[in-house]
Amino acid sequence: MNNNNKSNNTELPVILFDMDGTLIESTSAIVESFLFAFEDQKVPFLKSEEDIIDLIGYPLDYKFEKLGVEKHKVWDFVDSYKENYRKIANERTSLLENAKESIEVAKSFARLGVVTTKTTKYTIELLEKFELDHMFETVIGRQDVTNPKPHPEPVLKACEMMNVVPSKSVFMIGDTKLDLIAASEAKVTSIAVLCGYGKEEELVKYTNNICKDSLESVKLVKRLHSKA
């Protein structure tokens, strides 16, 4: 994987994948790490695990604020979270059903990237674990941008790194409204998957392209691009 790779092959479509809920399942590692952070910082956790799950997709600092952490303490909680997450992430993360096949199919006709609010380092380690890192030209994580999704900056950054102009031939596949809003604002095509954390009744407000999972979404990309 090369975050500075710039291919001259601009005729192929570009597919940008979200991670959590789109390609991978890591809910238990995320929830445990949030609970660990509150325990480590000696602050009672007054919300529910469901409240944590509802925030998956947002940046960590935002999530801790929404869970009641005072703003000036947020980054201490983030540090505690990462301390635990790095220990358990690989063991407690799995590929979602059809995710590997979807990447293999996508690679056969498109250029691929990842756009996530996870840390780039952890994301690359997970892709290496699943022996998929070589499939992606770039990974844009939280620390690579000033403004995370739903801001368009991560999508635009991925396009920049891949030397492509944002267009309808660039596809952002994700499971939450954050992915879809970022895609829309970046002027690329959005596709929602129902295998993650977003609810269909919410996702349909932001895109007309709703698919069961990443494999179905990749097949949709192939159809749409063939008609372009």
Task: Give the tags.
228 residues; 2 domains; alpha/beta; Rossmann fold; disordered N terminus; DNA polymerase, domain 1; 8 strands; six-stranded parallel beta sheet; 43% helix
Describe the protein.
Helix 3 (60-66) packs across helix 4 and helix 5 packs parallel to helix 10 (214-227). The longest helix is centred in the middle third of the chain and has 15 residues, at 74-88. By secondary structure, the protein is α/β, with parallel strands linked by helices. Helices cover 43% and strands 12% of the residues. The two termini are 29 Å apart. The chain is globular and about 55 Å long. It is built from ten helices and eight strands. It folds into two domains: 14-25 and 94-227, HAD superfamily/HAD-like (Rossmann fold, 3-Layer(aba) Sandwich), CATH 3.40.50.1000; 27-88, DNA polymerase, domain 1 (Orthogonal Bundle).
Topology of this structure?
Layout: E1 14-17, E2 24-25, H1 27-40, H2 49-54, H3 60-66, H4 74-88, E3 94-95, H5 99-107, E4 111-115, H6 120-129, E5 138-140, H7 153-161, E6 170-174, H8 177-186, E7 189-193, H9 200-203, E8 210-211, H10 214-227
Helix pairs in contact: 1-4, 3-4, 5-10
